[in-house]
Amino acid sequence: MNLSYRIAIRYFFSRNKRSFISVIARIAMAGVAVGTMAMVVVLSVFNGMEDINRKMFKTFDADVTITPAEGKRFLVSDSLLKSIKSIEGVDMVTQIIQDNALARYGNQQTIVRLKGVDSTFSIRGQLDTALIEGSLKLYGPGGTPYAVISDGVRNALSISLQDIITPLELWYPKTGTKTLNVTSTEAFNQTVIRPGGVFFIENRYDDYVIAPLSIVESLLQYQGQRSSLEIKIASKGYLEKDVAQDIEEKIGNKFIVRDRDAMNADLLRAIRVEKLFVAVTLSFIILVAAINIFFSLSMLAIEKKKDVSMLYALGATPSLIRNIFLAEGAIVALSGAIVGILSGILICWLQMSYGLVSMGMSTALVDAYPVKLIWQDILLTGGIIVIITLAVSYIPARRAALSGQTLIV
């Protein structure tokens, strides 16, 4: 073992337990431990929030989405579909029509986001984990069309899946009828459909009505046009970002091709920025706690002046004396950091295993605060503590080296 560390360890363990210097050192250890624990836990919570949001996106959003670069709709040709399906990694293409519409059920009405999907939507099975009642079928016996509605729409309209008499009415303004009175029923296209399933993910998806593409196309008068194409990529060996890039190169600049993360880039970026600011804030808190190391080492240097002079007399160099006090600060900080990291990992494990802290709200995926441990964050926390320890230990260590030289002179 290095001589400076051996002497530092001896100083650390041989202090008088009633010494004021020893009390300050223990306060410093406790402060570093609490700050480190808080950083591990908070960063893990942000990781969990990012992870749970990605799971929510995956439940509803497609792996890759194609939308027109201009306007709300575009004409889908067989050649375009063949071109997309020929790209390696593309497993399935779902044609989508989406717009706002008026939904009525009995005496209740509300504005919904109406989403028309073709038969491949059910095959994708994304909403399986979010389904809370009914089924995901779009057609029943005899070709009866069914809609899959969000829990928010069901509550707003008081819909009962057991009621086979009352239909769900969908209304959309007619195109090219500006002279008609908008309060008249003649100004709207209308269709009826039966609700067949209810899903719940979280509030941002709580106003959706998903219906067969042909029904929505007729209601919205899209006439072969589509709002978007949703791509499901092969489950193994392909990355969403890579497939999206290949599709973009293939179909040209008339379309915007985005993977799931790009579709939700603003929210994911906000989580990462918040995580960064919290990490910086907690770093300053650890720095404040580590100031006690500065005071502890400063007073230790005064107490050990005779020892330092003796070491100089025995041939010690200023760098050895400086390293002794740097090692002393490192021992104090490292002890607190180890306790803090282990405590943080334990708290995260308990939360992941038992969900001790509830979010106060429920989703289809989680009802407790999500936590995800990432070892890079633990390494980052350790690196921050090392930097802070060097920063607060260097000045008292340098002063101890200089004071010993002065006594010798």
From TrEMBL:
<feature type="transmembrane region" description="Helical">
    <location>
        <begin position="332"/>
        <end position="354"/>
    </location>
</feature>
<protein>
    <submittedName>
        <fullName>ABC transporter permease</fullName>
    </submittedName>
</protein>
<keyword id="KW-1133">Transmembrane helix</keyword>
<dbReference type="GO" id="GO:0044874">
    <property type="term" value="P:lipoprotein localization to outer membrane"/>
</dbReference>
<dbReference type="Pfam" id="PF02687">
    <property type="entry name" value="FtsX"/>
</dbReference>
<keyword id="KW-0812">Transmembrane</keyword>
<dbReference type="InterPro" id="IPR025857">
    <property type="entry name" value="MacB_PCD"/>
</dbReference>
<dbReference type="InterPro" id="IPR003838">
    <property type="entry name" value="ABC3_permease_C"/>
</dbReference>
<comment type="similarity">
    <text>Belongs to the ABC-4 integral membrane protein family. LolC/E subfamily.</text>
</comment>
<dbReference type="InterPro" id="IPR051447">
    <property type="entry name" value="Lipoprotein-release_system"/>
</dbReference>
<feature type="transmembrane region" description="Helical">
    <location>
        <begin position="20"/>
        <end position="46"/>
    </location>
</feature>
<feature type="transmembrane region" description="Helical">
    <location>
        <begin position="276"/>
        <end position="302"/>
    </location>
</feature>
<feature type="domain" description="ABC3 transporter permease C-terminal">
    <location>
        <begin position="282"/>
        <end position="400"/>
    </location>
</feature>
<dbReference type="GO" id="GO:0098797">
    <property type="term" value="C:plasma membrane protein complex"/>
</dbReference>
<dbReference type="Pfam" id="PF12704">
    <property type="entry name" value="MacB_PCD"/>
</dbReference>
<keyword id="KW-0472">Membrane</keyword>
<feature type="domain" description="MacB-like periplasmic core">
    <location>
        <begin position="27"/>
        <end position="232"/>
    </location>
</feature>
<keyword id="KW-1003">Cell membrane</keyword>
<feature type="transmembrane region" description="Helical">
    <location>
        <begin position="374"/>
        <end position="395"/>
    </location>
</feature>
